[in-house]
Write a structure and sequence with these properties.
The structure is a single chain. The chain is α+β, with helices and mostly antiparallel strands and 279 residues long. It is built from six helices and ten strands, in the order αβαβββββββααααββ. It is elongated.
Length: 279
């Protein structure tokens, strides 16, 4: 599933290539992609110019002349940009095509059809659902905020990190990496976390996400942004590993909240003498 770094990579690719482009028309081949109604969506965006492409958490926001629309890639959504005067047949997984005024096509590809798009307000989209329900991203949050948010919770840390109303943008891959770098057991219960641990978690989260953005995200399955594959999988220290890339110890894999979880008993034991091992 595309997480914050993958979505940011897609945003940058789109912003660099289609900002300022005008949408002539839109063809929709799978109407459930549009959660606010196909006809209203097509009528609203046709003839509009793309002025900006923003990101909030894992959501893309296309800002047009009079409206905006949100794109949530979900499991395997991605965009393919087709050059003008190039005959590339549609595939069965390309469910929506934006025809641009310069002859290019922006195609939305989604193997599982889980992705969604919806119309929203141009100026107040952050205050409307679903974006209004999102928490701050790790780089925007404070240790006090996170501690207050989790201090009454009996849920495990791993589940809290994946909750977009606690912190926005973190998915399963990066939650594993964040817990390792912060030297915290992902099974630890929220109300047992101290403000100091929350500060470590935010520092780790901000660093991991920034490094992943710089590497173009992580290609684990079929993530692709205009032909650009993420490279952060080569830097993963714990996720999908058999041995911890920090200490060389055996990695334990279990399930927390239905999600595969990897951790190192040595590095994430919470002991102060292990502090230098995960920096």
């Amino acid at each position: 599933m595309p997480e914050l770094p993958e979505v940011e990579t897609v945003r940058r690719m789109l912003a660099a290539n289609i900002s300022g482009s005008r949408i002539l028309r839109v063809d929709v081949f799978y109407d459930k992609i549009i959660s606010t109604g196909q006809e209203a969506f097509v009528n609203a965006v046709s003839g509009q110019t793309i002025h900006a492409i923003n990101r909030v958490g894992k959501y893309l926001v296309f800002v047009l002349d009079d409206v905006a629309f949100i794109s949530h890639l979900r499991m395997e959504g991605k965009y393919n940009l087709i050059a003008a005067e190039v005959d590339v047949p549609l595939t069965k997984h390309e469910h929506l095509v934006f025809h641009l005024a310069d002859g290019r096509e922006l195609r939305y590809h989604d193997t599982r059809k889980f992705g969604r798009m919806m119309l929203t307000g141009k100026d107040d989209y952050r205050d409307r659902k679903p974006l209004s329900t999102l928490a701050p991203e790790p780089s925007e949050a404070t240790a006090e905020y996170l501690w207050l948010r989790v201090s009454n919770s009996r849920r495990p840390l791993k589940s809290l990190l994946l909750d977009q109303t606690v912190l926005a943008g973190i998915g399963n891959i990066y939650a594993n990496e964040i817990c390792l770098r912060a030297r915290v057991d992902p099974r630890q219960i929220g109300n047992m976390l101290t403000e100091e641990i929350c500060a470590r978690l935010l520092t780790a989260a901000t660093t991991v996400l920034a490094e992943a953005v710089a590497a173009g995200g992580t290609t684990i399955s079929s993530f692709n942004s205009g032909g650009i594959d993420g490279l952060f999988q080569a830097q993963l220290l714990i996720y999908g590993q058999k041995t911890c890339q920090v200490c060389g110890g055996e990695v334990t894999r279990l399930t927390i909240g239905g999600r595969g979880t990897y951790f190192c008993h040595h590095c994430q034991a919470g002991e102060e003498e292990d502090e230098q091992k995960c920096q």
